[in-house]
Structures are given as C-alpha cells and as structure tokens.
Amino acid sequence: MPEKAAFENFAHDADIGVRGRGGTLAEALANAGRALTAVVTDPASIREVLSVEIACEAAHPEELLFDWLNALVFEMATRRVLFARYEVKVEGARLVARAFGEPVDVTRHQPAVEVKGATWTGLRVGREGGGWVAECVVDV
Amino acid sequence: MDLSRLKRRSEFEWVIEPRGKMRVPGVLFASEPLVRAMDEKVLEQVTNVATLPGIRVASMAMPDAHWGYGFAVGGVAAFDPDEGVVSAGGVGFDISCGVRCLRTRLTRAEVEPRKKDLADTLFRTIPAGVGSRGRIRLSGEEMDRMLRGGAKWAVEKGWGERGDLERIEEGGAMKDARPEAVSDRARARMRDEVGTLGSGNHYLEVQEVAEVHDAEAAEAFGLQRGDVVVSIHCGSRGFGHQIGTEALREMLDAGRRHGIDLPDRELACAPVRSKEGEHYLGAMRSAINVALANRQVLTHLSREAFGSVLPQSDLTLLYDVSHNTCKVETHEVDGKPREVYVHRKGATRAWGPGHPGLPGRLRPVGQPVLIGGTMGTSSWVLTGTESGMRASFGSACHGAGRSMSRHHALKRWNGKQVVAELESRGILIRSPSLRGVAEEAPGAYKDVAEVVEATEKAGLARRVAKLLPIVTIKG
Q1: Which of B33, B155, B263, B336 is surrounded by the fewest CB atoms within 10 Å?
Q2: Burial of A59 (0-12, 13-18, 19+ CB in 10 A)
Q3: Over the stretch A127-138, which tens digit does the pLDDT of each residue have?
Q4: Contact across the interface for A106 and B433, Cβ inside 8 Å
C-alpha cells in the first residue's frame, strides 16, 4: 500500500480541502499549513527568506486547527507572503509556530487564489494509524 | 437530488413540506433538470435553515443553488426582528460580493480595433490577483469614514461621480454600520486593499450586449444590441472574510448561550435582538460599505483606463447589486407588510416595478439584476418582477456556480491553452496567474443560460439582455 501523503488537497464540491498528517498533532498541523499553501501555489516554489511567529489557543484540537489556518490566512494576506514550511509546537491548548517563506512573487509563484478562511466543514483532527491527521474544507 | 422528498407546486416551484423541527416549508425555485442536478446537500441545508427561530414564510433556494457553509449558496431566508436570528453563514464569507455594470457609450465596432490596447491598459490599471495592493492607504479615522460611507465616501474622495450613487443599492452607503464592531485584524486586512479586484471567480469584464430580450426594459436601462458595457464582480476583499471568520467562531458560542438548537454548527447564529446579533450586523454592514467603496474605486480606475484608450467613452453606472447580504426590508408576511431581516447568500436582490427604493428612471421597469457568467460564456441583465416580490422576498439567482472543483479543473485544463482557445474566439484574457485561469476555465462552471431561464419562468426576474465577453481581467 502506498504511503499516505504528509499533506494534500482534496476536492469538496466546488471548494477545496486541506489535509495534513504527522506523527504528532503538531506535525499534522504543520502539514495542514503546507496543504493550505498548496491551495495557492506549489510549496516547493517558495524560498525561505523570512519567518513569522504565530500563536493561537483553543480548547479543542479541531478549534485549534480552525484558528491556526485562519491565523495563516491573516498573515499571508496582510504581509503578502507565502509560507513554504512551518515549525509547530503544541502545549496543551496553545500552539506556537514559526512560518518560513517569502513575499509573493506573482511571476514565479503563479498564485491561483486567495483563501478566504477555514470553515467547520469536514473539520477533523484525530488519530489515524499510528499518527495524527488534521483536515478541513477552506473557502476560496 | 432525489425528487421523492419534494412536492411540485408548479413547473418551477418545489416544496419541502415541514417535518420534524422545521418551522416553515422549504421552497426550491428551479426547472426539473436543475433540481435533479442539485446535490442532496441543498435539500438538507434548505431544511436546516427552516428550523431556525423566527424564520418567516419559507426557507428558499434559487435556481443556481448549491452546497454552501451552513446555508446553501443561492439560499434566501427572512427572519422576524423580535423572534428571529441573524446568521453569518446566511450571508457568507465574501460579504456584499456583487456585480456592477457600467455602460460605455461605445459599440463593439468602436472597441474591436483597440481591444488589445484596452485589455493591456485595464490589466495595468486594475490591481488584481493574490498579493496585489490598491492605491489608497487608509488610516484609522479615514478607515472609519469608509466603513460608514461606502461608495458615498469614495465619491466624496474623488473616486467617482455623484450620479453613481443612486444606481447603487442603499444609495451607495449602508446605514447603521458600526465601525466600533470591527476588529483590528479586519482593519489590518483592508488597509491597502481598497480598489483591488481580488482573485478566484472575481473579474472585470468588457462585454457586448449580444441579445435584447425585453426592449422596453432595455431602453430604460440604456442598453442596445451591439453596445459595450463593463461588468465588475468582486466584494469586500479580506475585510469581509475576516468579519465572516470571526463571526462564525463567536456565533457558535452565542447560539449555545441563547439556547439555539443547531442541526449544523455552520448555521451559527444569534438573535437579532442580542448583543452578539447587533455586533455582527454592525460589522457586516461595515463590510457592505467596504464592498461598495471597493467597486466604486474600481469604477474610477476603469474610467481612467477607458479614457486613455478610447477618449470618446463615457462610463455611466447601470446598477450595482450585492449578492451576499442581510438587509432589513419590508415584505408582505401573512397578508401584512412587515419588517424582516432578509438573508441572501449567493442570491441577488430583485425589486419589482414601482418599488420606492428604486431611482425614478428605473422604477417603472424594476431593479436591474446583474448575473455573472464565466470568461467564455454569457452574463445577463435581468429585471425584478412583482411576482418575485411575493414569491422570494424580491430575490433572484446570482450566477452560474461551479460544476467542477478547482482541484479537478486544474488537472483537466492548462491555463495557456484556455487563454489561447478563448483568444481564438475573440475573447482576450489578462491574468497574473495561469494556474488561476485553469481553475476558472469556463468548462468548470454550469450553464448560466439555463439558470436565468428558470429564474424567469419561476417569475423571480425577467431577462432583459445577454452579454458576451470581449476582454476579461482575472485576479
């Protein structure tokens, strides 16, 4: 059986879903962030020339994914950047992360669409096999 | 959709009889093929909305309805001010997303020789796509003035003409906006986005009036076959998205506090008469003003671009409609005129002839209803009807709607090929992103002609003119 992708997008009616997997909740959330980037452009096309610190807090892991993705949407929009990679730590209800990327380069990144926000649709954070999966549908 | 759960009231009206916790029936306005093609989720979502407190008459779906967050896109629902709720899911993320149509006093024959120059000039002038910035930088106080004033603010700042305002819903400024209900994060997202087109399905299009279906209304709208118009489809940009996202989170808690039983958490809502409800309404109305200001500034930029390429042009506003809103309107409920909070999500306000809210020239024929298509297909101008005022709180469809996900479209089409194929048909595409063009390929959308035909036959609005694209600027 082929190994499941660390991050991927999935079709959901007219919209698009983001899914991250990892050995820990933090890794799954980091990879969900890469899947969010992949909605806009190929994460491999992004250089790591800057980093941004992000923190959020939520009582439930699903709400943490919702808040984390929305924090990324906010940072991407207001800083006009794209992120290639994330280092995420989760301690209890709190998430602290560093996102690495660069300013949007329209010619090189060919960004397809802005993500409007994460939604409650298809929102799932939980155990899968020996690891974690974090996914939801995002509005574009 | 399985038709067995629907009762056919007429050829274009399908009823979901109240059952379980439904307080009112559900009504789908569509032809049989359109209803059959709708996903089952539309039925579930129309049913869910019918359970919300204070809903009046019916939970409705327009002919282009498809699955949405909480409410279906194409959903219309009106709520009582005292017993009812307001729902962020009933408005959508892109608050006051809408379409504006401008006449140019140019014909296709005049534009054709300058088409390429016009496309390039528009593309240079209109900020479009991910990461683009507008010309305006807004400070705190100026931002507040924009949040209260909408297009009226923009015109006062020199971004337009006073005559534009009567051709915009709410006279260009949504009243009762509350800037103090707007978060710092929403403000941060709008600081330099006024006057930007955005991305995704948003566009600015130069179009030709290809067919006239209602000569009297077309004359009142100032449209003739062969005329060139400009249509702008965009909304409140990141500002509205941020308000919608925050409301979705806050209303989940508000609903629990107010004991509202929700079949789906994306129906998150708050009583109209509650702190949370008033907070959302104040912020949402500010977002409506952002969208109106944004389309107004884009209008000004379009005038600049047209003026430099075709100096004989004169861009005047036909109308500006919003299709993601909640508005307080008076409609007949149980035989009496009553104030209701009309949620239209992916549905266009379509006031009929004689409505006092319409400017004089338009009043005898009804409100122009602007329906967007895709880069390669038609868009439409319709007019509101008296029957639509009674049947759907004066609401009609809003567009084609996707038939294919972005994911699948990207696998199927190549942006360069889409651009070349459209160019061979005389349609020039300008976009910063070829991937974006592939995801927005005309084949990924449903046939809008079928939707507007069903809208007319259901009596919600009447076809006036069909528009075909000449130049499309995509975000």
Answers
A1: B336
A2: exposed
A3: 999 999 999 999
A4: yes
